Amino acid sequence: MKQTCGVDIVHIPRIKKLVEKHGGPSLENPFIKRVFSKEEIAHIIDRKDPYPGLAGRFAAKEAVIKALNPFKKIADLKSIKIKGKVPKVELKDNKLSKLGISVSISHDGDYAIALVVVTVLIKTDR
Ligand SMILES: CC(C)(COP(=O)(O)OP(=O)(O)OC[C@H]1O[C@@H](n2cnc3c(N)ncnc32)[C@H](O)[C@@H]1OP(=O)(O)O)[C@@H](O)C(=O)NCCC(=O)NCCS
User: Fold this and answer.
1) Nearest-5° Cα angle at 55, 51 to 59
2) DSSP string spanning the chain?
3) Which residues contact 22 (CB under 8 A, 6 or more apart)?
4) Domain ranges of the chain
5) Share of the chain above pLDDT 70, in %
6) At what angle do helices 38-45 and 51-68 cross, to 10 degrees?
7) 87 in ligand 1 pocket by Cβ < 6 Å?
8) 52 lines ligand 1 (CB under 6 A)
9) For ligand 1, is residue 107 a contact (CB within 6 Å)?
10) What is the pLDDT averaged over residues 90-110?
11) What is this structure's pTM?
12) Distance (Å, rounded) from C-alpha 108 to C-alpha 86?
C-alpha cells in the first residue's frame, strides 16, 4: 500500500475578492464557473456567507492536486469534484478510479484548510 497526502490553506478574503470582482456569489459568476460545477456548490452559494465554504472547497481541490502529484499532474481544477455536505472527492479521469481519496475541510476566521489522503494498493509478491 502507498499513501500520499496534500494540504492547502486559503485566505478566505482572497476568494471573496476574486468572486466579488466577477460579480458576486452566483452560479453564473465566471470565476466560480471556471473552478466549480453547479452540483458541488449549489448548497453553499445561497448561504448568508458562502465564502468559507467556497474557500474550503477551493483548498480541497489544490490539496487533491498535491496528493495526486506522484500519480498524475492535474492542472484543471474542474476535473476534480468536491461533492456533498460531508465532502467527497470525485475525479474526471477514470484511470485514477482505483485510488482511495479522502478529504477533510475546516475553516475558522480568515482561513480555510483542506487535507487530502490518497491510498493506492500496490501488488506485491506476498
Ligand atoms: C462536523 C463538525 C466536526 C464540524 O466542525 P466545525 O468546527 O463546526 O466546522 P469546521 O470549520 O472545522 O468544518 C466544517 C467543514 O467540515 C465538513 N463537514 C461537515 N460535516 C462533516 C462531517 N460530518 N464529517 C466530516 N466533515 C464534515 C464540511 O466541509 C464543512 O465545511 P462547510 O460548512 O463549508 O460545508 C461539527 O459540526 C460536529 O458535528 N461536531 C460534533 C461535536 C459537537 O457537536 N460539538 C459541538 C458541541 S461542543
Assistant:
1) 175
2) -EEEEEEEEEEHHHHHHHHHHTTSSSTT-HHHHHH--HHHHHHHHTSSS-HHHHHHHHHHHHHHHHHHTTT-----GGGEEEETTTTEEEES-GGGTTSEEEEEEEEETTEEEEEEEEEE------
3) 29, 30, 31, 32
4) 2-120
5) 97
6) 150
7) yes
8) yes
9) yes
10) 94
11) 0.90
12) 17
Phi and psi torsions of 110, nearest 5° = -85, 0
| pLDDT tens-digit readout, 61-88 | 999 999 999 888 998 999 999 999 999 9
Whether the per-residue pLDDT at 123 is higher than 70: the answer is: no
Judge contact between 12 and 59, C-beta under 8 A.
Answer: no
Question: Does ligand 1 have an atom closer than 6 angstroms to the CB of 6?
Answer: no
CA of 24 to the centre of ligand 1 (A): 26
Q: Fill in the amino acid letter for 79.
A: S
Domain spanning 2-120: which CATH class is it, in words?
A: alpha beta
Please give the distance, rounded to the nearest whole angstrom, from the Cα atom of residue 11 to the centre of ligand 1. Answer: 19
- Take residue 54 and report the three cell numbers written for it: 467556497
Amino acid in the structure at residue 46 = D
Cell numbers standing for residue 48: 448568508
